[in-house]
Design a protein that fits this description.
With 308 residues, the chain is an alpha+beta fold. The protein is built from seven helices and seven strands. The chain has three domains: 2-77, no CATH class; 94-149, Helix Hairpins (Orthogonal Bundle); 157-301, Histidine kinase-like ATPase, C-terminal domain (Heat Shock Protein 90), CATH 3.30.565. GO terms for molecular function: ATP binding; phosphorelay sensor kinase activity.
């Protein structure tokens, strides 16, 4: 009889313990459910699921749920940032296109004036031509960027003399540098052979030279460095009132040093440079050196003659 009572007591104790654990499990699950509802309702906060449970299954579940919440919030923040960038970009593009179009409309109306002299007509036609060229450059930049970002652009790699490409690209701009009183010192290097795409490399150099023309104060220089894997092209120029806060975003789309965008520039030039260099397995970065000069450093893959 005593043994039977002992068994009954043990069973009763086990029942009480099990019932308590089940009640606690149900209560903790309810608490987690209420927390999740609050997190969903206020998803913009950094709130995560919290629990004081000792149940290993619930602890693992809480960790997994928090991982999902963190990943989802990170993805949502990235999406929100891209949407803001897109809105800003569309605003900038609208401004960049509207400015020359408005100017074209104004000059076309002025050209219809029968009282204009032949000299005035020539001047206005010259301005209209420049505005059309500016618009064409914008459209070409948009098209090239769309190709780069859609992986439609193909590359034909070959041995290239980087120094010759720099000289070849610079010559058409010689008069522009003189007109702006910008002295350009180009270091010669007949051993700067790289492995790259000719058209893409020329476009990189072209965009960088145009950047110098737009922002150099009075002088610029081009140098080469040689490393085991790369030929490093450095293009340096003095600048006026450079905002160093922009240096980390210099390759972003539509970033331009001209905040007013009064010069009609899209800011796509350096972004295209970055994409073309990266797609050729190179590296590019920008910084201000100890002389307060703006420096663009581009690493092109070095040509290695394996037949030697």
């Amino acid at each position: 009889m005593d043994k039977l009572w002992i068994v009954v007591v043990i069973i009763t104790i086990l029942f009480i313990i099990t019932s308590y654990k089940l009640l606690m499990y149900k209560w903790e699950t309810k608490q987690m459910s209420e927390q999740l509802a609050s997190i969903i309702e206020n998803f913009g906060t950094n709130e995560l699921l919290r629990t004081t449970t000792q149940h290993q299954g619930l602890i693992k579940l809480t960790k997994k749920i928090n991982q999902l919440i963190t990943l989802y919030k990170r993805d949502q923040q990235l999406t929100d940032r891209k949407e803001k960038e897109m809105k800003k970009e569309m605003t900038n593009i609208s401004h960049d296109l509207r400015t020359p179009l408005t100017s074209l409309k104004g000059f076309s109306e002025m050209l219809s004036n029968p009282n204009l002299s032949e000299q005035q007509k020539k001047e206005y036609l010259s301005i209209v031509q420049k505005k059309i060229e500016s618009l064409t450059l914008m459209v070409d930049s948009f098209f090239e960027l769309s190709q780069l970002e859609s992986s439609e652009k193909t590359y034909h790699f070959e041995k290239l003399n980087l120094s010759e490409l720099v000289i070849e690209t610079f010559l058409p701009f010689h008069n522009d540098f003189e007109a702006r009183n910008i002295s350009l010192d180009i270091q010669e290097n007949n051993t700067a052979f790289i492995w790259g795409d000719s058209k893409a490399t020329k476009r990189v150099i072209l965009n960088l030279l145009q950047n110098v023309l737009r922002y150099a104060k009075s002088s610029a220089r081009i140098e080469y460095r040689d490393s085991e894997q790369y030929i490093i092209l450095k293009i340096m120029n003095d600048v006026k009132d450079f905002d160093q806060r922009k240096i980390n975003n210099i390759f972003d789309r539509t970033i331009t040093l001209d905040e007013s965008r009064s010069n009609g520039l899209l800011g796509l030039g350096l972004h295209i440079v970055q994409q073309l260099v990266i797609n050729q397995k190179g590296e590019v970065n920008a910084y201000i050196d100890e002389h307060n000069d703006f420096v663009m450093s581009i690493r092109f893959c070095k040509f290695h003659d394996h037949s030697a």
